[in-house]
Specification:
single chain, alpha+beta, Arc Repressor Mutant, subunit A, 4-stranded mixed β-sheet, 3-stranded antiparallel β-sheet, 9 helices, about 40% helix, globular
Amino acid sequence: MEILAKMFGGPARVKLMRLFLMNSEDVFEKIEMGKRSKVTGATLSREIRMLESIGLIKQRTVIKMHPKKSSKDGELEKKKVVGYGLDSSFPFLAPLRSLVTEIALGKEDVAGRFKNCGQMKLIIVSGILIDETDSRVDVLLVGDKMKKPVIEGVLKRLEAELGKELTYGMLETSEFEYRFGIYDKFIRDIIDYPHLVVLNKLKLF
């Protein structure tokens, strides 16, 4: 119980847990962890110590490519760095991964995140968001007058929460309806496989 009590201590901890659980083979330097999870400063340091103390992550030294300090053209060099990675011997790894990689958002919440992104008609989530690794996209957005910069901002916040980059598709309503009508492979690959419809004003299926 002590481990569980420590584990779910707030959104920052959940973001970092997802980062490691969904990138189990990677080793992250502290600065990279902050950029990916949007957790920084003293909070990041505290959560790293906590996750290390319960055995979910461990410190590792790896060789990574870094820009040369003396280079003006972005030349890279191999550099030994200290980072953190998932500890595969953690006793509750399987059930924890299953828990945190499942979509934690309700339909209304997902739809609400995109409400200021244009005239949304259809939103489908798949892939990472429902713990499916084999999917064409993680998010499909269909609508009109869609605001790409705003949409990308929403997706970046979702990526920070999930600890994983998302792929998405964005189609105007007329194009989606046409491609749906001719059984377009891209569309069929999404709707014929596991997915979750969080908004549907088209009523095509």
